[in-house]
Design brief:
By secondary structure, this protein is mainly α. Helix content is 66%, strand content 5%. The protein is built from 7 helices and 2 strands, in the order H-H-H-H-E-E-H-H-H. A two-stranded antiparallel ribbon has the order 1-2. Helix 1 packs across helix 3 (33-43), helix 3 (33-43) packs antiparallel against helix 5 and helix 6 (101-113) packs across helix 7. The longest helix is centred in the last third of the chain and has 26 residues, at 116-141. It is globular, with a radius of gyration of 16 Å.
């Protein structure tokens, strides 16, 4: 009755292999079957978004804004949308920053300017936009 971690991992990998969209996302650094499958299932059809940046808004990774008298103040992230997908995108970005020099440079640049936790979320927004663009471009070719 209680499946083991290996059984659950195998089930996720089987489901990810059944979906061509998930297979297109897995070559990206830091993305495995779980992240790709969750992205495909939660986002659905990325063509419903006009721009890739709107994925960040949909998932809740865009900072809240409190502006007054020409002064723009960005606060915490809105946390609207799927907390699982938000977590997985940040984890994918962290893994990519560990193994890919361009991602590491982007993360370190942000971490020096801001706090590390802010840099992690900011870099985590990037895969969501890239994945949407990749799926939309691939959909147009098919």
């Amino acid at each position: 009755m209680n499946p083991t971690i290996e059984e659950l991992t195998a089930a996720v990998e089987r489901e990810a292999r059944k979906r061509p969209e998930a297979m297109r996302l897995m070559p990206h650094p830091g993305v495995g079957p779980l992240t790709a499958l969750a992205y495909v299932l939660i986002i659905g059809t990325p063509t419903r978004f006009q721009r890739g940046k709107q994925i960040g808004t949909y998932v809740g990774m865009i900072p809240c804004e409190d502006s007054s008298a020409g002064k723009q103040r960005l606060g915490h992230i809105s946390k609207q949308g799927s907390s699982l997908l938000r977590f997985l995108l940040v984890e994918a970005a962290q893994a990519a920053a560990r193994i890919h020099p361009d991602w590491r440079r982007r993360y370190m640049h942000l971490a020096m300017r801001r706090h590390k936790s802010i840099a992690k979320v900011a870099v985590g927004r990037v895969p969501g936009s890239l994945f949407a663009k990749k799926l939309m471009d691939q959909g147009n070719r098919d």
